[in-house]
Amino acid sequence: MAAHPDCSEANRPQGLQSGLKSRHLTMISIAGVIGGALFVGSGNVIYSAGPAVILAYALGGLLVLFIMRMLGEMAVLNPDSGSFSTYADRAIGRWAGFSIGWLYWCFWTLLMGWEAYVAGKILHSWFPFIPIWGYMLLVIVSLIWVNLKDVKSYGEFEFWFALIKVVAIIIFLVIGSLAILHLWPWGEIAQTASSGGLFQQEFMPNGIAPVITALLGVMFAYVGAEIVTVAAAEAKSPEKEIRKASNSVVWRILLFYVGSMLITVCLIPHDNPLLKDPTWGTYSVTLTALGIPEARHIVNFVVLTSVCSCFNSALYTCSRMLFSLSKRGDAPKCLAVTNRQGSPWIGVLFSSLFAVVAVYLTATESMNVYDVLMMATGTVALYVYLAIACSQLRMRKKYEREGKHIDFKMWFFPWITYAVIFIIIGSLIVMLIEGTYFKEVTYTSMLALAIVLVGVLVQKLDKGKVGKNALIQEKQSI
């Protein structure tokens, strides 16, 4: 990869600023595992897997718990805006940090376009006088503006976005629990005096295959938990915040995901056709059955805040990942340029690229093309998890050889780390042989990985050429 020209560095601060407060980091860590998939996409998973969906979400959550503990161990010792990409660079090699950093950037920047599209559809359904692409542009410009300001602004917006999601989920859990205990007097469930029935249905009505498929999907639903380790680099006490976030992963997953699934399967039959209807979603179906008026609009409002939160965090994470890659020489130097507020503004604008593409595709009624692009992100979550596990394995052994004190450790090292690596590799193999959709996702993701690895090769050849030319020039000067 050829040397990158430096962009103008006039009025450039020294770098990122420490503007995130503890309450910001707390809500960012909570919001990281709550995406639109919980409110909408989980319905289809319940429909296919049945009550066993609880098992899929619990096992997927256990894997993420281990991953976050490994990442936390490395992040407490070395807080960095590049997070796992930086650790892969140090532990495995520069090629690994380069690959996983750019793949992760591609994952989130592509997802931003889809999140903007969902937000545009919801707003258009309420106020149809503006086209979907118009609302998309409004959301994109607004959140770019937030990310161009100081990091405290990002933290403040994310705090309130996350708070809305958390409050909504807690209300859902309370109402659902009352209905299960027959203390909720309204809706179809109260009238029939019975529930959809966790104990009235077969646990695995369609066998083990849909549960395995659901487990693979659940792994993608949890992506975002690691964002807090990126954001913590801009906090005043990153080590403390990373510890707190890593330790709270278990209750967040149990409460928000497993709890929501448990409430739903206790109240709604898994074969309810509305569960697989993407215009409804898990929460809408359940709350409507409980007699909540205008439940779909209420849930759509929560989904709107959720996708805006996801877009906001994705843009933040993408710009910080580019900042780290640039500092390591794996991205153009201009992507590390910060404005007076300490925001890597060029990285923010560059990371919005695919969101703008999504606006154009929506305006030209070609959004189906974007589905093909999204397929290339399918296994990026597993690549990230694998990179984290391999990095922790090597870094932990290195620290132990050096006699370095580690007070925030991964449990039962190295056995759980090896088990996680084995499970991830096994999951990738299963995706290759289980179903047409997963095969397509895996193949397109492998193509994306191959493209990045070609970039690594070009980079290595380029640096080798530069080094050779420098040596020749040195000899000639002598």
Question: How would you describe the overall organization of this protein?
Answer:
The protein has one domain (22-402, 409-459): Amino acid/polyamine transporter I. Mean pLDDT is 83; it is low at 1-14 and 465-478. It has helices spanning 22-31, 36-49, 53-77, 83-91, 94-126, 132-148, 151-180, 187-192, 209-221, 227-231, 238-247, 249-267, 282-289, 295-327, 345-351, 353-363, 368-375, 380-402, 415-433, 436-477. Helices cover 72% and strands 0% of the residues. With 478 residues, it is an all-alpha fold. It is built from 20 helices and no strands.
Number of domains: 1
Report the radius of gyration as a whole number of Å: 23 Å
Which architecture does the CATH hierarchy give at level 2? Up-down Bundle
Main sheet specs? none
Spans where pLDDT lies below 50 across 5 or more residues: 1-14, 465-478
CATH superfamily: Amino acid/polyamine transporter I
What is the quaternary state of this protein? single chain
Overall average residue pLDDT? 83
How many angstroms separate the termini?
29 Å
Q: How is the CATH topology named?
A: Amino acid/polyamine transporter I
Quickly count the helices. 20
Helix content: over 70%
Please write the string of helix (H) and strand (E) elements: HHHHHHHHHHHHHHHHHHHH
Strand content: under 5%
Assign the structural class, choosing from mainly alpha, mainly beta, alpha/beta, alpha+beta, or little secondary structure: mainly alpha
Total beta-strand segments: 0
